[in-house]
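sorry to bug you again but im stuck and you know this stuff better than me. what follows is a protein written twice so to speak, once as letters and once as structure tokens for the fold. mainly i need to know what kind of three dimensional shape the backbone takes. anything you notice is useful, everything is just below:
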Amino acid sequence: MHVRLSEAEFVAFEAFCADANLTVSEVLRRLVRQAAGLGPAFDGDVKEIVLAHAEELRRVGVNLNQIARVLNGRREPQFEVLLDGVGRLARLVWEQASDIKNMCESGRAKAQLQVNADV
């Protein structure tokens, strides 16, 4: 990828990258991801939060597999218990999805401000 900048733009962009403690390539990659709608690149505390969400969603998948086994089993399932469990799982997935969406939107808004600002 080739980008042409004036000398002043390049100096300002390098200073921006140094202030963010990121390489020029990493800053460009993050800005391109945001502009293309691919979502933010996570690091630090946010990365840990995203990994925790991913682990929680993995556990939800395990629970759904257990529910499917019960429904496909030979014994008659306790539908009230299953409905309660499915409802709790649905609420958990909704909360996880909302949290992740909010983090992505926050990252996009922050990146948009940075792109719109004089770098």
